[in-house]
Amino acid sequence: MTTHFDEGDGEPGRDLDDPLTVILRPSSTEYLGPPTGRYESIRRGANRRRLLRATLGAGATCAVIALAALPFRLSHHDSPTTPTVPLAPPPASSSAPTASPSQAPSATKAPSSTPTASPSSPADVRTPSRTVVPTTEPSRVASEPSAVATQAR
Amino acid sequence: MKRSRERAASELFAAVYPRLAGWCRRLVDDDETAHEIASEAFTRLWARWTKVTEPRGFLYVTAANLVRDHWRKLERERRAVRRATTEEAIRPPTEQSDPSVRLLVQSLPERLRVPILLHYYADMPIREVSVLTGRKEGTIKADLHAARELLRAHLRRSLDHTL
Questions:
Q1: Minimal Cα–Cα distance from A77 to chain B, Å?
Q2: What pLDDT, in 10s, does the model give residues A93-129?
Q3: Which end of chain A is more exposed for a tag (fewer CB within 10 A), N or C?
Q4: Residue of A nearest to B153 (CA)
Q5: Model-level pTM?
Q6: Is B67 helix (H, G, I), strand (E, B) or coil?
Q7: A78 to chain B nearest CA, in Å?
Q8: Which residues of B touch A13 (CB under 8 A)?
Q9: Is A23 within 8 Å of B141 when comparing Cβ atoms?
Q10: Does B104 touch chain A (CB under 8 A)?
Q11: Is the minimum CB–CB distance between B99 and chain A shorter than 8 Å?
Q12: Distance (Å, rounded) from C-alpha A64 to C-alpha A51?
């Protein structure tokens, strides 16, 4: 079966009684004029819609960029947030050599409090006194149990 | 630039709107719906004014799609009313719109409907229809021929039915 092409851009049907010609002939008489102010309202509506579309497009673009950049940002941000606490040497004091091995942990605590300590705050003033008290006591404390033990016997 | 675009929009509106709205009026039941459909077609056109290369064709195709949506909506409403009232003897819907043009839009597949609308109702030459639809001129001519044959067959069937 072969397809018949039109011979040009003109009307296909010559017969004016052909119902198809009637269908395909646009009605020249039926015009519907726009109501007053319709043009302006259509323009306003189109501008609003264009603005809305642009806003939504910009928002979507920003969201995509943020989602794409977030993993990089997080992975980049992770490495500097894991610093190791620097191990400072214990403070040089006269009582340090006398400290027993069992009290070594208290000696390690001392450096952490030492840098923040200031004479103005009473709480910090108390902290060194606490650390000092055990260091001066051990000779007495070590002798007391032996004394108690002998008394019990 | 903006002023020239505004002037072009105004000229297009003055030239096309009355005819487009009149064409819609033949397809729908009242003037208000025809104005709504024509206005919506223009709103969609101007919301993407910079992207549309052939505004007249865009307007007619958009209006045809809106008319089809309107018919579907009416059909749904009629069905809902029929279900709600459960009356069998409901008067069939009055065909106030032009049945021949309704046939044109309703019966043809989109591939054939668009060339017919653009060529016969938007007065576009086949060359322009070809550019707009991205098909070859020979294909457009073949589509127009096929559409006419299909319409002729539909018309013959409806005429036989009425006789």
A1: 42
A2: 655 555 555 554 544 444 544 454 444 444 444 444 4
A3: N
A4: A20
A5: 0.60
A6: helix
A7: 45
A8: 148
A9: no
A10: yes
A11: no
A12: 20
DSSP string, chain A: -PPPPPSSSS-S---TT-HHHHHHS--SS---PPPTTHHHHHHHHHHHHHHHHHHHHHHHHHHHHHHHHHHHHHHHHHGGG-PPPP-PPPP--TTGGG--GGGHHHHHHHHHHHHH--TT-HHHHHHHHHHHHHHHSHHHHHHHHHHHHHHH-
Question: The domain B108-163: what is its CATH number?
Answer: 1.10.10.10
**Crossing angle, helix B31-47 and helix B2-27, to 10 degrees?**
150
Domains in chain B: boundaries: 1-97, 108-163
Sequence-separated (6 or more) residues with CB below 8 Å from residue A128? A110, A113, A114, A117
The partner residue sitting opposite A49, judged by closest CB among B21, B43, B159, is B43
Q: From chain A, which residues contact B within 8 Å (Cβ)?
A: 3-6, 9, 12-13, 19-20, 22-27, 30-35, 38-39, 41-43, 45-47, 49-50, 53
Kindly report which listed range (A1-10, A13-22, A57-66, B7-16) carries the lowest average pLDDT score. A1-10
Confidence of residue A142 (pLDDT cuts 50, 70, 90): very low
Q: Which of A17, A42, A44, A47 to mutate to test the interface with B (most CBs of B within 10 A)?
A: A42
